[in-house]
């Protein structure tokens, strides 16, 4: 095999590989010999089929297997032998001329192909002892825990039927049918639906028109679906709802006690408070880590300056741009609404993509030098956490990751990154600082995170909610 470098410009490399016809012949004969004892051909005893007969019948097909074998096995080894790392999957090209290809498959010509790729630049891991970060810590007060626990307990609040008009905070039980242009639409009807007025559970304008109704009232409500409504066929449409009120109930005073906790499936009010405290601490702890990580990445970005592989930057930019434009389209906005232009936005996100790629390579090198590893158990936990977000599709998601190495790599990448961040935080100067909630929540200038966000298999569309009148943004997703 003859390997010749034909391009070495910056990070770009091109390699010409020639496998002489005699070597191709030797590989083919080896395959034919192996097949000789396995094939069954009428008129020949097992293992006695002449080699020339096998060549006549299977020669071209087996030579094609030889070609594929060389392409799959040699590309990585050639780059590795050169002491290089490819930034992305190398591009392999060979002749498209049918006559030339026929000669190769017939063993009459050398097999020639080209490998084009970008290398990951050499990165010298630098001392980080001079890096200083401030870890902002918010201690959640008991009053905030109690307030949040009461919000959670709200779902277990009891109501008592009352006479008279419904007020904000009252619960109305209703039957309704939604119509567009006078025709009922799918998912727009329900019976016995409970709605707490003022909860924001239904689309804007719906609940307000029920204030003042009494049991037995019938009313036609007119609303307009939000432009960004999840069901595209309803988004922005004017609709009416024929509503019949079957009950009005007033809320009972809410007290956080063991009985309320048991209605929520917990053994005591203290257990509810404990769970709420843990959730709040996790929530604010995640903000603390995000800010620390941002400081760390900003300083690493200032220390490491090198050319990032253009293909990686291009791929990362496309990920970012697709997300940005998709979010704008979903919100019915454009770049002018964001007080910028598409040209300026492209330049900004191009810089963001370059930063992400560069920092991703830096963290990868630091992690490799430090011996950071992701265990099978950690991968399994991450997989189960991912699967949890796709109820009813667990089997398909498991199979997707099991059979897709790239998906596994995308699952592993953020785990590896966070471990490297932990490793660095053990080496840099970290100062803890107690802050208020407002200080912790204060918006910093947005900066990039090191690596592209992990990808997941496309999620199937959720089934329409039973009542289209319900505000689909209220479920927290």
Automatic annotation (TrEMBL):
Q: Does the keyword Cell cycle apply?
A: yes
Q: Keywords in UniProt for this one? A: Cell cycle, Cell division, Chaperone, Coiled coil, Cytoplasm, Isomerase, Rotamase
Q: Which GO terms describe its molecular function?
A: peptidyl-prolyl cis-trans isomerase activity; protein folding chaperone; ribosome binding
Q: Where is this region: Disordered?
A: 440-477
* Places the protein is found: Cytoplasm
Compositionally biased region (Basic and acidic residues): 468-477
Catalysis performed (reactions): [protein]-peptidylproline (omega=180) = [protein]-peptidylproline (omega=0)
Please provide one cellular component term from the Gene Ontology annotations of this protein: cytoplasm
- Composition-biased stretches (Basic residues): 453-464
Limits of the PPIase FKBP-type domain = 169-251
Among InterPro entries, the record links this protein to: PPIase_dom_sf, PPIase_FKBP_dom, Trig_fac, Trigger_fac_C, Trigger_fac_C_sf, Trigger_fac_ribosome-bd_bac, Trigger_fac_ribosome-bd_sf, Trigger_fact/SurA_dom_sf
Which processes are annotated in GO (biological process)? Answer: 'de novo' cotranslational protein folding; cell division; protein transport; protein unfolding
- Name the enzyme group at the top EC level: isomerase
Q: Record's SUPFAM superfamilies?
A: FKBP-like (SSF54534), Triger factor/SurA peptide-binding domain-like (SSF109998), Trigger factor ribosome-binding domain (SSF102735)
What EC number(s) are associated with this protein in UniProt? 5.2.1.8
- Major subcellular location class: cytoplasm
Family that this chain belongs to: Belongs to the FKBP-type PPIase family. Tig subfamily.
Q: PANTHER family attached here?
A: TRIGGER FACTOR CHAPERONE AND PEPTIDYL-PROLYL CIS/TRANS ISOMERASE, TRIGGER FACTOR-LIKE PROTEIN TIG, CHLOROPLASTIC
- Which HAMAP family does the entry mention? Trigger_factor_Tig
Q: What does this protein do?
A: Involved in protein export. Acts as a chaperone by maintaining the newly synthesized protein in an open conformation. Functions as a peptidyl-prolyl cis-trans isomerase.
Q: Quote the protein name from its UniProt record.
A: Trigger factor
Gene encoding this chain?
A: tig
């Amino acid at each position: 095999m003859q390997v010749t470098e034909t391009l070495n410009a910056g990070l770009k490399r091109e390699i010409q590989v020639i496998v002489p016809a005699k070597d191709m012949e030797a590989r083919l004969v080896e395959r034919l010999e192996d097949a000789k004892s396995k094939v069954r051909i009428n008129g020949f005893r097992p293992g006695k089929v002449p080699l020339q007969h096998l060549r006549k019948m299977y020669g071209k097909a087996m030579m094609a297997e030889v070609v594929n074998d060389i392409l799959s096995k040699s590309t990585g080894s050639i780059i590795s032998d050169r002491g290089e790392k490819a930034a992305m999957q190398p591009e392999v090209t060979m002749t498209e001329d049918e006559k030339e290809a026929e000669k190769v498959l017939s063993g009459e010509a050398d097999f020639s192909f080209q490998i084009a790729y970008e290398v990951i630049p050499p990165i010298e891991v630098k001392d980080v002892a001079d890096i200083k970060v401030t870890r902002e810590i918010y201690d959640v007060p008991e009053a905030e825990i109690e307030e949040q626990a009461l919000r959670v307990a709200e779902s277990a609040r009891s109501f008592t039927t009352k006479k008279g008009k419904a007020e904000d905070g009252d619960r109305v039980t209703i039957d309704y049918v939604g119509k567009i242009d006078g025709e009922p639409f799918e998912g727009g009807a329900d019976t016995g639906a409970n709605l707490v007025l003022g909860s924001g559970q239904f689309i804007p304008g719906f609940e307000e028109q029920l204030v003042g109704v009494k049991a037995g009232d019938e009313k036609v409500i007119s609303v307009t679906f939000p432009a960004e409504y999840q069901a595209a066929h309803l988004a922005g449409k004017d609709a009416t709802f024929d509503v019949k009120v079957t009950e009005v109930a007033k809320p009972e005073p809410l007290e956080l006690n063991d009985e309320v906790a048991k209605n929520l499936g917990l053994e005591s009010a203290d257990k509810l408070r404990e769970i709420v405290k843990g959730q709040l601490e996790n929530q604010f702890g995640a903000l603390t880590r995000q800010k620390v990580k941002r400081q760390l990445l900003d300083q690493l970005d200032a220390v490491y300056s090198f050319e990032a592989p253009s293909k990686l930057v291009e791929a990362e930019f496309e990920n970012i741009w697709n997300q940005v434009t998709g979010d704008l389209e979903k919100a019915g906005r454009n770049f002018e609404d964001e007080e910028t232009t598409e040209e300026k936005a492209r330049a900004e996100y191009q810089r963001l993509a370059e930063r992400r790629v560069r920092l991703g390579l830096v963290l990868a090198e630091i992690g490799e030098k430090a011996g950071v590893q992701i265990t099978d158990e950690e991968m399994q936990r991450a997989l189960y956490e991912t699967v949890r977000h796709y109820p009813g599709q667990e089997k398909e998601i498991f199979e997707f990751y099991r059979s897709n190495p790239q998906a596994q790599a995308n699952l592993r990448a953020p785990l590896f990154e966070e471990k490297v961040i932990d490793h660095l935080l053990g080496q840099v100067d970290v100062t803890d600082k107690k802050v208020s909630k407002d200080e912790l929540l204060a918006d910093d200038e947005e900066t990039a995170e090191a690596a592209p966000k992990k990808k997941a298999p496309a999620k199937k569309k959720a089934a329409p909610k039973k009542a289209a009148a319900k505000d689909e943004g209220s479920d927290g997703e």
